[in-house]
Design goal:
The structure is a single chain. Helices cover 29% and strands 27% of the residues. By secondary structure, it is α/β, with parallel strands linked by helices. The strands form five sheets. Strands 5-6-7-8-9-10-11-12 form an eight-stranded parallel barrel, surrounded by six helices. It has a six-stranded mixed sheet with strand order 1-2-19-18-17-4, covered by helices on one side. The protein has a two-stranded parallel ribbon with strand order 3-20. Helix 2 links the parallel strand 6 and strand 7. The chain is globular.
Amino acid sequence: MIPRFFRCLDASRTVGLPVLLTAFLASGAFAAQAPLALTLDTAHLGSAIPDDFSGLSFEVALVMPATNGVRYFRPDNLPLLRLFQTLGIRNLRIGGNTSDRDARQLPGEADLDSLFAFAEAAHTKVIYCLRLRNGDPQENAHVAHYLISHYGSLVDCLSIGQEPSAYPVEKVDKRPAGERMGTAAEKFRYETYRDEWRRFADAIIAGEPGVRLCGPSVHNNGTWARRFMEDFGHSNHVVLVTEHLYPGGAGGKVPSPEIGRDRMLANDFVRAYQKLYDSFVPVALSNGLPYRLEEVNNYFNGGAADVSNTYASALWGLDFMWWWAAHHAAGVNFHTGDRVAAGPNLRPSRYTAFFSATNGYEIRPLSYGLKAFSLGSAGRMAALSLPSEAPATLSAYAVLGDDGSALITLINKAHGTEAVSYAV
């Protein structure tokens, strides 16, 4: 399932302005070709897509030196800096399970110095997760003060806790390592989290009055986001609402690669986006609070074999970014890295955007989705309508650039026997 990417310039008079049309197609022999009429409305524009919309998320374990003593995030890691620039990455989130409930070691000041030296060289802001479960408010206050006093201009915000709705309710967590998220597995009380978050936040604010906080950093849980906004959205230095989303669920539960890829490219995933959006975003926007999906990918626990690491993920990732950009998100951060947390353990990542290689990094399919988004997203959102008979597997998005040109992205996720090509 390898997508074919192409770009073409179209000086169509029916549009009345220069158009850059970028189309992304799934694989297959296209037996049919259908005409496709697009209606572009440039008279009623939406907001501009934020410059730091495209982001990546990494485990905090990656901030510390490897066994050879070399740090991943360091200002002289030129291949990684070039990769961030090439993909248009402007936001770096550090967290994951290794930052909180499954933390075995947390970064020291030298590690943080190296991380933020990299961030400065990469021209990225950083969202940094502080430990909540089994954490120490005073230690968090010390870390927050260190970060703000040394790197305040680079800190987007600090979160407190990683996916707290999935914390264990027993002293010994008896849930299977790969099944700790989702309605059936999450029993931790919001009220307990609220009281602990307030205690930690009070200590942090006392030590650093200028701190910017965000939360609740839960997975696919709009109820917690709404309650967090009710309790802290108008105070406590909260500047951003954060959610996580892996719409496919556990990677190990996918029945087959074919089913996993079909789900990723079908409307099932889009329905999951809409459900999460409806559950908290209107409240956030009505209260003037931006929101960001600070940890996302297609299937959690490192992804699904022969699904997350195929080129279907390029189409999925591109469509995912556009869908949330069209729904007023401040940005998305794809969780990535050579190894990611699956419960308390780190395992090789199938959904990662790139892997470490001998002389740099090996690009994985998701990076192509990130790159495609960076090519066509500079501008203000413009309404682009498809014909009513267009299938759900076809998506269309547009922005109007500062120079007055329209950038149009079409994503055709139809594949196999249902594949159709379109003449625009």
